[in-house]
Design brief:
The protein is mostly helical. Helix content is 55%, strand content 12%. It has seven helices and five strands. The strands form two sheets. It has a three-stranded parallel beta sheet with strand order 1-4-5. It has a two-stranded parallel ribbon with strand order 2-3.
Length: 130
């Protein structure tokens, strides 16, 4: 089975730090049993920039990024990002993440539901609501 979920930055961090509920962790473990994680280019940047990361966190993050499909900012994602910014006035990183999910027909895994819930057509799962 192919990739069906795009992980938001917060989901990656909560999962790696084991801060999810048991149902959420089980749900994500099931996803990982059939597919590698998928992240947007902006999530990769945000993870590498994470200010509170310890040296061990950085090692774990680098390994996680290397194990993930990273979806780059190709033209279709850029154009969709612009549409989302114009129509919904969301922050640029969130618009890039939403555009990456929409262009690739992924369901977004994010705790920040409020940032994405208004975007038409975006499939969203908040792991903290499982």
């Amino acid at each position: 089975m192919g990739v069906t979920f795009l992980w938001d930055t917060n989901t990656v961090i909560y999962y790696l730090q084991k801060q999810l509920s048991l149902p959420a962790e089980t749900f994500i473990d099931e996803i990982l049993s059939i597919s590698r994680p998928a992240i947007s280019a902006i999530t990769e940047i945000e993870l590498r920039w994470w200010k509170a990361a310890t040296e061990n966190d950085i090692i774990v993050l680098n390994n996680s990024i290397n194990d993930s499909f990273v979806y780059e900012l190709y033209s279709d994602v850029k154009y969709k990002t612009v549409e989302i910014r114009k129509e919904y006035n969301v922050k640029l990183p969130d618009a890039i993440i939403a555009a990456t999910a929409l262009v690739n027909d992924f369901t977004l895994l994010s705790r920040n539901s409020k940032d994405f819930v208004r975007i038409d057509g975006l499939k969203l799962v908040n792991p903290f609501n499982l």
